[in-house]
Specification:
The complex is a heterodimer of chains A (510) and B (379). Chain A is an alpha/beta fold. In chain A, 34% of the residues lie in helices and 26% in strands. Classes of the chains: A alpha/beta (510), B mainly alpha (379). At the A-B interface, strand 2, helix 1, helix 10, helix 11 and strand 18 of A face helix 9 and helix 10 of B. Chain A: It holds the Pfam family ABC_tran. Chain A: Its main location: membrane.
């Protein structure tokens, strides 16, 4: 067995009474790609934060290259050659690539010498690892895939031998993800060690040498990737057998319930985010909108839901127009049968400081069954919340617990229960399973299919291509604010990936 | 990376932490007293005795507390709406105009129990009107409410000086104040309650507006936690985006929230004008609007916390006055320093000791608190 780059021995970490990590033992071999997989809240990020010096373990030992060391701050981690690429990039958006790379390692008071040093170093890294990026480009003008490359460069520039990547593919197109994997393989061939944190089984199978599975704060198994299967890993993650494929019958589409024509939406900076989009959603079908995050899907959904003003275009809800360009009241749309599961449940779909029951009426709080004159009908609200908790298996089953204390999956179930139980005509769903664990994903997917089969018109926006493919009856692909193609549910991933990257459109233009 | 936050039991959150903050504030204040060459233990004794030592002292303490309850509630209602109303001082000051006009008009015609409701309505209406302008500017023009409400304090102060040395001053008088009200605009004192308990009260100004303050505390609780409007205000206060999503109008929330806040601040004017001085004089608010901010912070914007916090500041006002009188080295300004320390520790540094308390609680009794760990499948 090769030498261990990292050894974690008996790591424990508690936040109050919550044991985020218990007795974790992990050994990462030098020169390998080691995957860490687990549901949200399984403790993966906590473990890596301990390794990178954001948190200190309550007990246990960290060894790097065989030597026990204390990592109290990220600087300690960098000093022993550990670099981290965060899920949310830590880049200064209006700095150039080279300025970001030297940030925190500027050297002297004057930048000239460190910049020229960084420039030659970047050229070397580019040669060795194929990490091409223009050193003078401004970060905010770079696509997400390149921004991530800058993060990797930053770590390597600081001399990282061990690279930790936290959910690196969440923001990438399939093509960009493939490119990232090629880079990681190249890093491995050069003797670097890569730790990849993800909840996507497919990535683990595609790229890792070894995989460790975490569940509820413990390390439940470590396997050679070549000797395991997707089914086994899923079962280890959840602790029971999981259905990875969604079972659904043929759609029975009926009348058009939601019709969008020539919709154009600008964001607050005046940039056109949705560009002349038209689409129809029939009762009894799920229409999926695929696309890389930031290509206008969010704005499209918000404009239809009335939480963002459109510049031009019309939306017909059940045959009657919605004033999307003027004053539109989301509350009125709700009364007309439009339910909306927003993409951002933390800031939009829920008020995290509220008790569960208070969130179970958000947006429907002026329905007569929840009121008694100007007063809230507290008993009715709580009884209703308890019903939904039982029906949607929301855990812990407490209607008085603060919403912030529920896990991501259960928070999402609170939103879904609220929106679905109002028996809407049209259901808008944004990122229904973002940050949601595998067990809850299965539940949520089943519910969405059930809504479809009950004759609802469902418009689904998701950056998870697998989700779009397995749920949708029709797939629309969005790129740069436009719908660039429509495909059936059996479209291949590669075909959709090309559309999502805007390839076909560009070729057509030439 | 979501680090779960440990939760404290309610009694610790609302009781223990404020008490710890207070103790630290008084310890630091004790050091200040020591530095000016006085014995801090003696000083504390005089302070407490000055606030509670006799029926009269208690009545004074509660008289001050009355004003602070009104202004504290005003700040709290705005807080729940996500707004920081620093203009309680000016809103209360201008509202005195409403009280004075009602009193000067009806004091010879109506009995007090008819003048009082009219004065309440006038005080609330004028206070709300003064708060409406910054609210409108925030809601429609995006002018920051903190800036505009501060500015409106100055405008209110200047306007009142003009009125009190001009139109409102009786001819021939040298003092910048209105004429004295007749019996029809003088609120009954509450001293007899304390006297019935065997204490001597003499002429302390505690009056029936104390009961109005308690009634308003209850009304604010009802509004915030039991009505649809309160639900909408809290939603908007916690998350404007969620409010938009839920179909709650931001313009409506800002304006209604500030009207209620201004109305509550305005009612503070009743206490000194109708309850004590029986005329309106310059600067009768005397900083109560600003103390209301500290009271609301310390009371965690909950009426059940605001009332005791207001009493505490009443203690500091009344006991502090006695202290300045008894100890020559401790001036009126020293009292302000002590009040400042309480505000610092109870308000601004509210969360300083929280992590330690949480650690202690976590190690003592893991089951009484915290995020229930997800159990079993599907969690």
């Amino acid at each position: 067995m090769a030498e261990a780059a990292i050894q974690l021995i008996g790591i424990n970490k508690s936040f109050g009474p919550v044991r985020a990590n218990r007795d974790i033992n992990l050994e990462v071999e030098r020169g390998t790609i080691h995957g860490i997989i687990g549901e949200n809240g399984a403790g993966k990020s906590t473990l890596m934060s301990i390794l990178y010096g954001f948190y200190q373990a309550d007990s246990g030992e960290v060894r790097v290259g065989g030597k026990p060391i204390a990592i109290n701050t990220p600087n300690d981690a960098i000093a022993v050659g550990i670099g981290m690429v965060h899920q949310h990039f830590m880049l200064v958006e209006n700095f150039t690539v080279i300025e970001n790379v030297i940030l925190g390692a500027e050297g002297e008071a004057l930048l000239k010498s460190s910049i020229s040093k960084a420039r030659s170093e970047l050229q070397r890294l580019e040669r060795e690892y194929g990490l091409e990026v223009d050193p003078d480009a401004v970060i905010e003008e770079l696509p997400v895939g390149l921004q991530q490359r800058v993060e990797i460069l930053k770590a390597l520039y600081r001399g990282a031998d061990i690279l930790i990547l936290d959910e690196p593919t969440g923001v990438l197109t399939p093509a960009e993800a493939d490119h990232l994997f090629r880079i990681l393989k190249m890093l491995k061939d050069q003797g670097k060690t890569v730790v990849l944190i993800t909840h996507k089984l497919r990535e683990i199978m595609a790229i890792t040498d070894t995989v460790s599975v975490m569940r509820q704060g413990t390390m439940v198994a470590t396997r050679k990737t070549s000797e395991t299967t997707v089914e086994e890993l899923a079962e280890l993650m959840v602790g029971r057998r999981v259905l990875l494929r969604v079972e659904k019958g043929e759609p029975r589409p009926a009348d058009v319930k939601l019709s969008v024509s020539n919709l154009t939406v600008r964001d607050s900076r005046g940039v056109v985010m949705v560009d002349d989009v038209s689409l129809d959603v029939h009762a009894g079908e799920i229409v999926g909108i695929a696309g890389v995050a930031g290509n206008g899907q969010s704005e499209l959904l918000e404009a239809i839901a009335g939480t963002r003003n459109a510049e031009a275009g019309t939306v017909m809800l059940d045959g009657r127009p919605v004033d999307v360009t003027g004053h539109v009241d989301p509350g009125e749309l709700r009364d007309r049968g439009l339910a909306h599961v927003p993409e951002d449940r933390h800031h939009v779909g829920l008020v995290l400081a509220f008790e569960e029951a208070e969130n179970s009426i958000l947006g429907y709080h002026d329905k007569p069954q929840y009121l008694r004159g100007p007063f809230l009908n507290i008993e009715a609200i709580h009884a209703d919340a308890r019903d939904k908790i039982a029906k949607y298996d929301i855990r812990p089953a407490s209607d008085r617990l603060k919403t912030a204390n529920f896990s991501g999956g259960n928070q999402q179930k609170i939103v879904l229960a609220r929106e679905m139980e109002q028996d809407p005509t049209v259901l808008l769903v944004g990122q229904p399973t973002r940050g949601v664990d595998v067990g809850a994903i299965e539940f949520i997917h089943k519910r969405l299919i059930a809504m479809r089969d009950a004759g609802k018109a469902v418009l689904l926006v998701s950056v998870e291509l697998d989700e779009i493919r397995s749920l949708s009856d029709r797939i629309l692909v969005m790129f740069a604010g436009r719908i660039v193609g429509e495909r059936g549910p059996d479209a291949s991933e590669g075909e959709l990936g090309l559309l999502m990257a805007g390839v076909e459109q560009r070729e057509a233009a030439e | 990376m979501s680090a779960p936050f440990a939760r404290l039991p309610r009694w610790a959150d609302y009781g223990l932490i404020p008490v710890i903050n207070l103790i630290v504030a008084f310890l630091v204040a004790g050091i200040v007293v020591l530095l000016v060459g006085e014995n801090p233990i003696d000083a504390a004794g005089i302070l407490v005795k000055g606030a509670f030592g006799s029926g009269q002292n208690i009545a004074y303490t509660l008289y001050y507390a009355t004003s602070f309850i009104f202004t504290g509630l005003a700040v709290a209602v705005a807080f729940h709406c996500g707004l920081f109303n620093i203009g309680g001082e000016g809103q209360a000051y201008i509202a005195g105009l409403g009280v004075a006009v009602v009193c000067l008009t009806f004091d010879g015609v109506l009995p007090w129990w008819l003048t009082f409701p009219l004065a309440i309505a006038a005080a609330a209406a004028v206070g709300a009107a003064w708060a409406f302008i910054p609210a409108y500017l925030q809601a429609r023009r995006g002018s920051h409410i903190v800036i505009t409400t501060i500015m409106f304090n100055f405008i209110a102060a200047s306007a009142m000086v003009y009125l009190l040395v001009g139109p409102l001053k009786p001819a021939g008088s040298m003092a910048p104040q209105t004429r004295d009200f007749l019996a029809g605009a003088q609120l009954p004192k509450l001293g007899w309650v304390l006297e019935a308990m065997g204490m001597s009260v003499r002429s302390a100004p505690l009056n029936i507006s104390f009961l109005l303050a308690l009634l308003m505390a209850w009304a604010v609780w009802l509004l915030i936690w039991r009505t649809k409007l309160g639900y909408e205000m809290r939603t908007f206060g916690f998350s404007p985006k969620a409010a938009r999503y839920a179909g709650i109008s931001d313009v409506r929330m800002i304006i209604i929230g500030m009207l209620i806040s201004g109305g509550l601040a305005g009612m503070m004017a009743l206490n000194p004008i109708m309850g004590d001085q029986h005329h309106m004089t310059l600067d009768f608010v005397a900083g109560a609007g600003f103390v209301g901010i500290a009271v609301a912070l310390m009371g965690r914007s909950h009426p059940a916390g605001i009332v005791p916090a207001a009493v505490l500041f009443g203690v500091l006002y009344q006991g502090g006055a006695e202290l300045a009188f008894e100890m020559p080295n401790i001036s009126r300004d020293m009292i302000v320093i002590i009040q400042g320390l309480v505000i610092l520790f109870a308000g601004a540094l509210e969360h300083m000791f929280r992590p330690y308390v949480q650690t202690v609680f976590a190690s003592l009794s893991p089951r009484t608190m915290g995020v229930p760990a997800p159990k079993g499948e599907g969690a």
